[in-house]
User: What shape does this take?
Amino acid sequence: SCQVIGDVKLGDDSSIWCNTVLRGDVNRIEVGRGSNIQDLTMCHVSHKTADKPDGSPLIIGDYVTVGHSVILHGCRIGNDCLIGMGSIIMDDVVIPDRVMVGAGSLISPGKTLESGMLYMGRPAKLVRALTEDEMKYLRYSAEHYIRNKDNYLKGSPA
Assistant: This one.
């Protein structure tokens, strides 16, 4: 099971997997169409303040794959992205469309990444442009999890 608390909106065909927490208690969380948030991931937000009236909501675009044990905190992720297992994405990070973040990466608060690129490391650094095959894999990964969700809903885990 998972925990979904507060102001959380889930898009069509999105899936939230085992032991994941989406805590929209002090700001909103939006998960786009066809996106998946995998096991043991923590999604949280930052509250609104006088100097930051919108706080830091968590906005996840369409067809995003969020790997196992990721921490997403008050960031924005565009469409067709993959966030690798165990990564930490902090407040006010902006990840545009078609970005891959390697497993175990840390993206520090306020960073804005570049579309079509691979980032890795602690702290994460730009590694290179994504290949054509990697760009295709971004959508494939999300669509694979849509099929997984549909199979589980039918009672078939494979």
The CA atoms of residues 41 and 69 lie 4 Å apart.
